[in-house]
Amino acid sequence: MATIKQLRTLQSINIIRAYARRYQSTSTAPTTNDASVEPPPPPGGYLPSLASSRLLRTTRERALQAPGLKWTDEDGTSPVREIVGGRDTRKMNLYQAVRDAMSHALMKDDTAVVFGEDVAFGGVFRCSMGLAEEFGQERVFNTPLTEQGIAGFGIGLAAMGHTAIAEIQFADYIFPAFDQIVTEAAKYRYRSGGQFNAGKLTIRTPTMSVGHGGLYHSQSPEGYFLGASGIKIVIPRSPIQAKGLLLSAIRDPNPVLFMEPKILYRSSVEQVPADDYELPLSSAEVLIPGSDLTLLTWGTPVYHCETALAILADPPSALLPLIPESLRGASVELIDLRTILPWDVARIEASVRKTGRLVITHEASMTGGVGGEIAAEVQKRCFLNLKAPVKRVAAWDLPVALHYEKFHIPDAIRILDGIMETLIY
Amino acid sequence: MISSTRRTFSVHRAALHRRYLATSAPQGPSGHHGLLPGSSQSAITSKLHFFNSVMGNDETIPTYRIISKDGEPVEGATLPNIDEGFGRRIYETMSTLPLMDNVLYNVQRQGKISFYMTSHGEEASIVGSAAALAPDDEILGQYREAGAILWRGLTVEEYIAQCFGNDEDKATKGRQMPVHIGSPKYHFHTISSPLATQIPQAAGVGYALKRDPKRRGKNCAMVYFGEGAASEGDFHAGMLLASTIPSPTLFFARNNGFAISTPSSEQYHGDGIASRGAGYGVDTVRVDGNDVLAVLSATREARRRCVEYGRAVLVEAMTYRISHHSTSDDSFAYRARSEVDNWVKSDNPLSRFRLFLEGRGWWSSAEEEDMKTRIKKTVMQAFKRAESRKRPELKELFRDVYAGPEPWNIVRNDAFRHFYYSKHRFINAFPSEFFATIANIQTEQREELATLLKKYGQVWEPWKRELVKFKGSGQELTQVKK
Fold it and tell me: Where is the Dehydrogenase E1 component domain (chain B) (predicted)?
């Protein structure tokens, strides 16, 4: 035991030395990967907020170069154009991007309908603004206040080959529909020997915390659906992602739960390609390449991670004593998982094999969360590569208490601490 | 497409208005109405009056009947328009049910199939209602509606193949329990065990029919459920949805008095299921479920309203579950054998209709004997065929979970590699590590099972015994080359 401890200490020292060397040699320049963005700014910089996040693509050029973007042009029969010249972008926040995606879906597919509680006047988060006026009340309509009904109704439409885009007003209220989603939608194809399916169903729902949502306007229930083989779960981090992933979700031949981080509806703004495009499901995206630690997340915490990395590289004075100088040059690979089920195991495995360290952070509670599943699989695949235990930075195993949110969800400082703990293990 | 849908909608509004005029609450002295948005049609009254009956005067909803227990038309009843061939076909389909049920019930008792549920006592409700539909109306059932899919032409062989889950089981590929039948050819959505989930789905199916220019005004969605299932939240949701988002959805409740052991008196305190229909603003009728002509007649009219007005309609068929709930249930644990025997003797839907047919000269004892012999033979042959066949290939265990590329956890390695190379061209980060990953990919779940089968399949008795029951004995899994 002592020997192992000593070895670990030695290892840590070596790693810290390695970081120090790397930091001096400024070798953290981006690789040739288009997917990546520049690493956090040099010392003397700032702490990123959503308004200044470098992960958001605020110019036309960067928007059109979003990795994985697949144009799905006008009538669907023309060849896919790879050239971006001549394409427009528009400044949009996340709810506008969601609306834009649904507008494309409704325009191209006569069978597509949008429904849920209060969607006709534009939705409580404005995601369906103007759609009823544009496409008619037969295609964009309110339902009675019944989540199990909304999900069941959508399954019925989908079983007839119609495109059903249902909304559950908050992910916190998806549980009455749990039965329809897990026992019906997910199993429709399998149990009928492939004769029937509910593949054209997409359920959109606002998720994650919003600062003052309390117990029932804050939850991240993606983990509860992990065992429901047959459905897909997708969570975007930004307007470009929301539009492309939602269009993929709507057109995917499987039922999809599409969870939209509600705090990002207005606060995340990007230039979004105006044309119809899709982003691939079951594909994680490397946002910042790195070699010392893999930081994996999805949805809102992507930006907390960005902040944590900025603090690590350039701590504000109050934190200076708490962040060892030797760690500041650590090269952390930030990955957005994007699809929770089925998740992109190859991308995560490749990253952890390279870095040897994994920190997973999500807003849902620790026990039974998605992080546990990923940690177990990575442990199996990367056992010999791991230099530290997989660290999960998650909400405590508690309901989301109203005035305690700051101390409940994993924010930048907790993520930073998790990164440091894992680096010096 | 949109404009014509709108037209349909305005017709409904007119129909709705008429309905309110026809059945509105008693007018107050001044005849004026409330102004609150939730009840703008409600008359204002100064009399304090509680009520507990949709019929008024504390009366219960009457039951519509056409032929009496001796097969004679009830006084004042109008016989539905049926000819001899149609009547005989209804009777033969009704008669097939107990003959098939008896064999499969016994087959289950011998352990040859895992489970069964019979339709004894409900033959008229099921076949009579199915006979009132167009052959391409969409049916969503609960589980005791075998008669509806047989009426549409599914063969006894196909039904029994599903119960055995053999390689001819197209409906479920051996994945679902017996009696969970389904077929797109017969517009019969595959049965699932969770009760009432099909009810709000039917509202969606109905809405899809209404939006489809080829089927609008021509088809409806028919949803069957028992009175027990009507206690589920999904019943409430389905009725609400089909009434507020008008859709041609025909709700058909089989009220057979029991949900397993729970008598209907412990299921609800109101006037059955029918009394709820009006609460949802849905045209409703209660019918004698043991009178196949009443069921046929009522369902025909229900369907007409459904399709013509594009709105929901509710039919409650009053019947009695002669059979045990299922092969896992002994109903004499909660009801007297004599009660059941009395029902069989006093009100048998089959003998009632047979008497009616004989009264018309459309049926005879000789024909009865011929038919029974013929159906028994068909059932026995189908049973022997089903029993002798293997299960589907073992690989079917892993299929049809997802459409499109299978996810990594269930996919075979070689397919996974192919998928990854072809679909993930955009992967450009860290190619060396990535390819190392591909080369060292872990054994995934299908492959893991194949590996275990190779290792233990011939030495571990419980697996060995099972493997031979599958077509190919699982070799399509174990002999795949990487």
Answer: 92-394
SS3 per-residue string spanning chain A: CHHHHHHHHHHHHHHHHHHHHHHHHCCCCCCCCCCCCCCCCCCCCCCCCCCCCCCCCCCHHHHHCCCCCEECCCCCCCCCCCCCCCCCEEEEEHHHHHHHHHHHHHHHCCCCEEEECCCCCCCCCCCCCCHHHHHCCCCEEECCCCHHHHHHHHHHHHHCCCCEEEECCCHHHCHHHHHHHHHHHHHHHHHCCCCCCCCCEEEEEEECCCCCCHHHCCCCHHHHHCCCECEEEECCCCHHHHHHHHHHHHHCCCCEEEEEECCHHHHCEEEEECCCEECCCCCCEEEECCCCEEEEECCCHHHHHHHHHHHHHCCCHHHHHHCCHHHCCCCEEEEECCEEECCCHHHHHHHHHHHCCEEEEEEEECCCCHHHHHHHHHHHHCCCCCCCCCEEEEECCCCCCHHHHHHHCCCHHHHHHHHHHHHCC
Using an 8 Å CB-CB cutoff, list chain A residues near B244.
143-144
Give the distance from residue A413's alpha carbon to the nearest chain B alpha carbon, in angstroms: 28
The CA distance from B455 to B444, in Å, is 16
Beta bridge partner(s), residue B316: B253, B286
State the DSSP code for B254. E
Distance CA B85, CA B196 (A): 35
CA distance B266 to chain A (A): 24
Q: How many Cβ atoms are within 10 Å of A215's Cβ, its own excluded?
A: 12
What's the pLDDT tens digit per position in A395-409?
A: 999 999 999 999 999
For residue A173, list chain B residues with Cβ-Cβ distance below 8 A. Answer: none
B310 in helix, strand or coil? coil
- Which of B143, B240, B426, B440 has the highest number of chain A CBs within 10 A, making it the mutation to test binding with A? B426
Class of domain B84-388: alpha beta
* Phi, psi torsion values for B287, nearest 5 degrees: -135, 150
Q: Which of A117, A167, A217, A408 is catalytic?
A: A217
Residue A217 annotated among the catalytic residues of the structure: yes
For B264, which DSSP code? G
Chain B CB within 8 Å of residue A351 CB: yes
Domain boundaries, chain B: 84-388, 394-478
Note the pLDDT of residue B412.
54
Question: Residue A143: its pLDDT value, please?
Answer: 98
The predicted model scores a pTM of 0.88
A324 touches chain B (CB under 8 A): no
Catalytic annotation present for A212:
no
Give A361-371 pLDDT, tens digit per residue: 999 999 999 99
| Domains delineated in chain A | 50-278 (3.40.50.970), 285-424 (3.40.50.920)
Of the given ranges (A252-256, B279-283, B443-447), which has the lowest mean pLDDT? B443-447
How many Å apart are CA A286 and CA B430, to the nearest integer? 10
- ipTM score of the complex? 0.88
d(CA B453, CA B462): 12
* List of chain A residues whose C-beta atoms are within 8 Å of the C-beta of residue B2: 135-136, 138-139
* Cβ proximity of A410 and A307 under 8 Å: no
Q: Which residue has the tokens 């930004």?
A: A238
Identify which of B194, B245, B402 has the shortest CB distance to residue A184.
B194
Per the omega criterion (within 30 degrees of 0), is the bond before B73 cis?
no
